[in-house]
Design brief:
With about 160 residues, the chain is α+β, with helices and mostly antiparallel strands. It has helices at about 15-25, 30-70, 75-95, 155-160, and strands spanning about 100-105, 115-125, 140-150. It has a domain at about 40-145: Pantoate--beta-alanine Ligase, Chain: A,domain 2 (2-Layer Sandwich), CATH 3.30.1300. It comes from Amycolatopsis roodepoortensis.
Length: about 160
C-alpha cells in the first residue's frame, strides 16, 4: 500500500464520532431543567394554594374572635348580634378577604354577666384566581369562638329600674 492510498490519521472514523457524541454530556442539564420546569411551577402553585388556605383559615378564626368580643360589649342581645355582624364584616374587609357569602350567627344566652357569647362565622371564599391548578371555584370556612360576658360590668341606671328614671 502506498502513502497515497492510506487514510489520514487525523480524521476520525464515523463510528468514532458517534461514540464521542454519545459520551458528550454537554447540554444535558439544560434539557433536564427544561423538562422539569413545568413540574416545578405546578409545585410552586400548589404551595401557594395550601398557604392561601391556611392563611384564610387563621384570618376567619381571628374574625370570629373579634366578633365574639364585640358582642360581649353590647347591652342587649339584638345589639350584640348587630355588633358581631358589623365587626365581622369590618374585620374581613381589613384582612383583605372578600366572602362570596357571609353568615354570622350569634348565641347570646341572655347576655347576662358571667354567661358566654358564641359567634360562628361562615365565609365562602372564591379560589378562581388559581385556575391553573384546577381547584374548585370556592371553599367555605367556618369558625366559632366563645367569649365570656364580664361579671363585673356595670349596667345602665335605666336598665335597673325598668326604664323609669
Amino acid at each position: 500500500m502506498t502513502a497515497a492510498h492510506r487514510f489520514p490519521t487525523f480524521a476520525p472514523s464515523a463510528c468514532g464520532r458517534i461514540r464521542a457524541l454519545r459520551r458528550d454530556e454537554r447540554g444535558s442539564t439544560a434539557a433536564e431543567l427544561t423538562l422539569l420546569t413545568p413540574l416545578l411551577i405546578l409545585l410552586l402553585l400548589f404551595v401557594v394554594f395550601c398557604g392561601r388556605l391556611a392563611d384564610t383559615k387563621l384570618r376567619i378564626n381571628d374574625v370570629a374572635h373579634q366578633a365574639a368580643r364585640a358582642a360581649t360589649l353590647a347591652r342587649t342581645p339584638s345589639q350584640a348580634t348587630a355588633n358581631a355582624q358589623a365587626t365581622a364584616s369590618a374585620a374581613l374587609a381589613s384582612a383583605g378577604i372578600s366572602c362570596q357569602s357571609l353568615s354570622v350567627s350569634t348565641d347570646t344566652q341572655g347576655l347576662k354577666p358571667g354567661s358566654t357569647v358564641t359567634v360562628t362565622v361562615s365565609c365562602s371564599v372564591g379560589l378562581g384566581d388559581l385556575t391553573s391548578l384546577g381547584v374548585p371555584g370556592s371553599r367555605t370556612f367556618q369558625s366559632s369562638f366563645s367569649s365570656p360576658v364580664d361579671v363585673w360590668r356595670g349596667t345602665s341606671p335605666n336598665a335597673q329600674t325598668g326604664g323609669v328614671p
